[in-house]
Amino acid sequence: MIGLIQRVQASQVEVDQQVVGKINRGILLLLGVQKGDTQAHADKLLHKVINYRIFQDDADKMNLSLLDIGCELLVVSQFTLPADTRKGLRPSFTPAADPQTGRELYDYFTEKAATSLTTGVQTGEFGADMQVSLINDGPVTFWLEV
Fold it and tell me: What is the pLDDT of residues 76-117, one digit of tens each?
């Protein structure tokens, strides 16, 4: 399971020109599910995302997590993250989980996230053509893989 996290001042996702998820300060997570991923992978990635220390403390060091500062999480499914891009000029999506497994693990992840964060979790729409906008804070972006 792959998570691309971006520290944001704000982010939102639209489907058919309608906002379906929106946060202020927090983390935008682009979530990619790979073949072989399980709920245990989702649990491990969620733990890492909400505890990853990417927010500044009083000494201006990246030392605080999403849980520490009480900000929001926006989770957007992204099947392109597991793509194999090593050969040629067209990505191969062979490493990505099939759509049913991807949806099941995405739903599992977002439900667990909602119970873990009292500040709120927003989501995109699995499988939809989404327009994601963000104000990247820093910019701070990390690739997490479990």
Answer: 999 999 999 999 999 999 999 999 999 999 999 999 999 999
Q: Return d(Cα 123, Cα 21) in angstroms, integer.
A: 5
- Among candidate residues 6, 34, 78, 123, the one labeled active-site is 78
Residue 78 catalytic?
yes
Which value, in Å, is the radius of gyration of the alpha carbons in the chain?
15
Place of tokens 């999506």: 93
Closest by alpha carbon to 9, among 20, 23, 21? Answer: 23
Distance CA 68, CA 84 (A): 35
DSSP symbol at 42: H
Residue ranges in the chain whose pLDDT is less than 50: none
Q: Is the dihedral of CA 74, 77, 78, 83 positive or negative?
A: positive
- What pLDDT does residue 75 have? 98
Of 6, 34, 79, 123, the active-site residue reads 79
Instruction: Look up residue 29 and give its two tokens.
Output: 């997570």
Out of 38, 39, 80, 131, the active site residue is 80
Beta bridge partner(s), residue 135: 10
